[in-house]
Amino acid sequence: MSEKNSHWSIRISREAIDKFGDNHVVCSGWSPSGVYHYGNSKEAITCNAFHKELLRADKNSKFIFVVDNVDPLNKVPF
Predict the structure, then answer these.
(1) Helix (H) or strand (E) holding 9
(2) Cβ-contact 34, 68 below 8 angstroms
(3) Which residues are within 8 A (CB) of 9 and not within 5 positions of it... i.e. 6 or more apart?
(4) What is the pLDDT of residue 20?
(5) I need a surface site. Which of 4, 42, 68, 78 has the fewest CB within 10 A?
(6) Residue 4: strand, helix, or coil
(7) Angle between helices 8-20 and 42-56 in degrees, nearest 10
(8) Would you tell me how many other CB atoms lie within 10 Å of the CB of residue 4?
(9) Are 9 and 56 in contact, with CB atoms under 8 Å apart?
(10) What is the dihedral of CA 55, 42, 77, 67, to 10 degrees?
(11) Is the pLDDT of residue 71 over 60?
């Protein structure tokens, strides 16, 4: 499969390896604001796919997932 036709996670991980070397930290998170829907998980799934591709390429990668339960808008009246 050519580079152009490869999965985006493969292309992005190769680019990151070329630019930043073999050690990576990939971060993602969720906030409690708003209504939960499928789109809320997009960032976590995207970052996790990137992290897993780095590991598949035998590079050091740490995945950090933060759930922020402090919502300053919780007390703002609508």
Answers:
(1) helix 8-20
(2) no
(3) 49, 50, 52, 53
(4) 96
(5) 78
(6) helix
(7) 60
(8) 6
(9) no
(10) -20
(11) yes
- Region of 58 please: left (phi>0), alpha (psi -120 to 50) or beta: left
Predicted local confidence at residue 68, as pLDDT: 77
Q: What gap in Å lies between CA 35 and CA 19, rounded to an integer?
A: 37
Task: Give the C-alpha distances (Å, rounded to integers) separating 13 from 26, 51, 53, 61, 69.
Answer: 11, 8, 7, 11, 30
Beta strand extents in the chain (DSSP E only):
23-30, 60-67
- Helix, strand, coil in percent for the chain, rounding step 5: 50, 20, 30
List pLDDT tens digits, range 37-68: 777 788 889 999 999 999 999 999 999 998 87
Tokens representing residue 62 in the block: 């740490």
